[in-house]
Design a protein that fits this description.
- The protein is mainly alpha-helical.
- It has one domain: Methane Monooxygenase Hydroxylase, Chain G, domain 1.
- It is about 95% helix and about 0% strand.
- It starts with a helix and ends with a helix.
Amino acid sequence: MDFPRIIFAALGFSASIFLYLPNLKKRKRRQTAKEKLELVNEALELAEQRVIKFQERHDRLLDQVSMHYLCNQRLDEALLDARAAMNEAHENAVSLQQMQMNILRSYVDEK
């Protein structure tokens, strides 16, 4: 019979699976990094839009301040709050960019 051929074929097939497993793990890590990067990219786009919105709001408030020559205390408080919100949105966008860079670095290290 052809038992030796069948046994060698089974051994060869199982050995090829063991040799292919590291490639599967790399592919899975790359896929995970890609998914993380897509999520961070979406969050970064939203954060950048938020920064732009706050900057526009801040500019409008500055225009109002220049029109009223800082005579209104509420306007001054609104300006300070707008600046704080804009800074927070900017810090959020920067942290997302750093997260994006970390993901990209981990992706490059895997190659």
